[in-house]
TrEMBL record:
This is Protein kinase domain-containing protein. One of its GO terms (molecular function) is protein kinase activity. The keyword Cell cycle does not apply. It holds the Pfam family PK_Tyr_Ser-Thr. The keyword Nucleotide-binding applies. Residues 327-400 are annotated as: Disordered. The lineage of its organism: Eukaryota, Viridiplantae, Streptophyta, Embryophyta, Tracheophyta. InterPro entries: CR_Ser/Thr_kinase, Kinase-like_dom_sf, Prot_kinase_dom, Ser-Thr/Tyr_kinase_cat_dom, Ser/Thr_kinase_AS. It comes from Hibiscus trionum. Transmembrane segments: none annotated.
Amino acid sequence: MSKSKEFFQNLIKPFKFNSGKDRQNGDDLQKIAQQEQKHFPFEILVAATNNFHHHQKLGEGGFGPVYKGKLDDGREIAVKKLSHSSNQGKREFENEARLLARVQHRNVVNILGYCVHGQEKLLVYEFVTNESLDKLLFKSNRKSELDWKRRHEIISGVARGLLYLHEDSHNRIIHRDIKAGNILIDDKWIPKIADFGMARLFPEDQTHVNTRVAGTNGYMAPEYVMNGRLSAKADVFSFGVVVLELISGQKNSSFNLDVNAQGLLDWAYKLYKKGKILEFMDPALASSAVPEQVAACIQIGLLCTQGDPQLRPDMRRVVILLSKRPGSLEEPTRPGVPGTRYRRSRRPPGFSSSAGTSGLSDSHSSGSTFNTNTASASASTSALASPLRSDPHGKRPVQS
C-alpha cells in the first residue's frame, strides 16, 4: 500500500462506522483506553463504588446502571456500567465512548476513563454534584434555587457546549438528544451536556445526513421526525425547546396551561405576537428577572425552534446573541411541530443571512450520505403538543 493511500484511509477512518471491520475497531474500549491513556483497573472501580452497591446507584438508562464512586485521591466519579442484556444499550454505550474520547469542554461532561474486564465494560465520568436540569426544574422542590441569573447562565453554557460540539471539537458531533434531562448541573451551577449515546459524528464535507430517527418526544425537530433529516439545526431546535422550558418553568411534552395553544412553543409564539411575551415567564422569576434579557431569550428560543431549519440560527450566532446586551433581533416565524410539513419561509424583514445560513445549514448537500431510513409520517404526530408513546427510558423508539 502506498503511503498516500494509507494516509487517506487513516484520515477517513473515524467516519466509517458502517463497515464491520471499522465498527469492531471503534467498539474496542480497550484500544480507546490505551490510546487516550485513560484506563481504569476494574478493582479500583469495585472499591470506589463499594462493589457497585445499590446505595451507590444514581440511576439507570437504556445501557445499564450508573453508580457514584470515590477514588483514593478523593475524586468523586460516576461509573456507567453496561448491562449484559442490552443490545441497543451496547451500541449507545460504545458510541458514547468513541465520541467522548477527545472531547474536553467546560460545558460537556468530562469522561475520565474506561474499563474492560471480561464481559464488563464501564465508562468513568466526573461526578456532577447537582441533579439534572430536568429534575431541578420539574421534579423537585429546588426550583426556587433557579433564579434568573442562574437560568441565563445555564442557557449560555449549554449554547457554548453545543457550539464546541458542532464547530470546535476534534470531530463535528451532532448530539441528537439535547433535553433538560441530559443537562447536568455542577456545584457551581455550571451546565454540562451529557449522554452521548445517540450522538453522531458528522463528516466535515456534509451539511446533513438521512438517518434513523431517535430522540426524546417534545425536543425533536420536525424535519428530523418527518424525514430523518439530521443536521446541526436539529440540535438547535432542541436547544430552543430547553430555553423556553427554562424560562417558563413548563415541560414542553406535557404542557396544558393554555387550551388554545398547540403546545409550549405555540403558546410562546402567540404571546410574542400579541406583545405579551413576559406573560410566558415563570412566576418564580418575578423578583430576579431582567425583563429585557428575558424577552430577548424567549425570542432567541423562538428563532431556534422555527419550522424551517434554514431560518434557525447556528450555535455560533446564538452564543453571540446571548453575550450581547438585548437589542434588535430577527422576527421569528411560527415554531415547527413534528407531524406537519414546513413551507420554505420568505425571510422576514430585518433577517440577517448569518442567522440562518452557515457551514452547517440545510441549504445544500454535498458528499455522500448515510443510508436513508426515514420515519413514517404516521409515527410522528404532534410530539410538541402531546407526548407520543415512548420507551421506559424516555427515548423515542428508533424507526427501523
